[in-house]
Design goal:
three-stranded antiparallel sheet; 9 helices; 196 residues; globular; alpha+beta
Length: 196
């Protein structure tokens, strides 16, 4: 398969999917190795960016997705204003940040750090597909553990969790943890989150 055909095939697959596609699925479909597919995706991403097109190809850990260019977010919001979800509250952002930094985390752990019940907020984040269940803790009652989703990465314009702002090395039992998490959330919001 020629390079032009490979780029067009990747573009077609990602457009049709409408959601992140794991790179292994692309490799299997195109019968190409991982390095070739990653290189082709990077070339396609560079072309979209260089040509200042309305689309971008983003990497989300081991997946790729086509999305709209961030500079057109305002126009897109105005066009689909009635479909736009409500912004997340400060408590929701706190719970989301705690789960992002300490995942997998149980609701009881989140409650312990925040000092308040987070049942409603965890449910809200599950409904918005920002967190998901990822198993149960091997402890009495076997509480559900939560982790962030690919939608979380996309919402905050992150390629992977390694791009989260660093927290100072303080223990969760320290009284300043909430202030540090709030500062990290503020930094995330200022670095380009669109739908928070």
């Amino acid at each position: 398969m020629e390079e032009t055909d490979t780029l067009a095939a990747i573009e077609s697959i990602l457009f049709a999917a409408g959601e992140p596609v794991d790179v292994s699925r692309l490799c299997m479909a195109l019968e190409l190795d991982r390095t070739t597919v990653d290189t082709a995706c990077q070339r396609l991403a560079d072309a979209y960016s260089y040509e200042r097109r309305g689309l971008r190809l983003i990497r989300l850990e081991n997946s790729y997705q086509l999305c709209s260019a961030p500079e057109y977010a305002g126009l897109i919001r105005r066009t689909f204003e009635s479909r736009r979800p409500a912004r997340l509250s400060q408590p929701a952002l706190e719970v989301l940040a705690i789960i992002a930094y300490y995942q997998p985390a149980t609701r009881a752990y989140v409650d312990q750090i925040r000092g308040v019940d987070s049942t409603y907020t965890v449910g809200l984040l599950l409904d918005r597909d920002l967190i998901e269940e990822c198993g149960r803790l091997a402890a009495p009652g076997r509480p559900i553990q939560y982790r962030t989703t690919q939608n979380f990465l996309r919402t905050f314009s992150l390629s992977s969790l390694e791009e989260l702002p660093e927290l100072p090395s303080i223990s969760p039992e320290d009284g300043q943890i909430i202030q540090e998490i709030q500062a990290a959330v503020a930094q995330l919001q200022s670095e380009g989150a669109v739908n928070t």
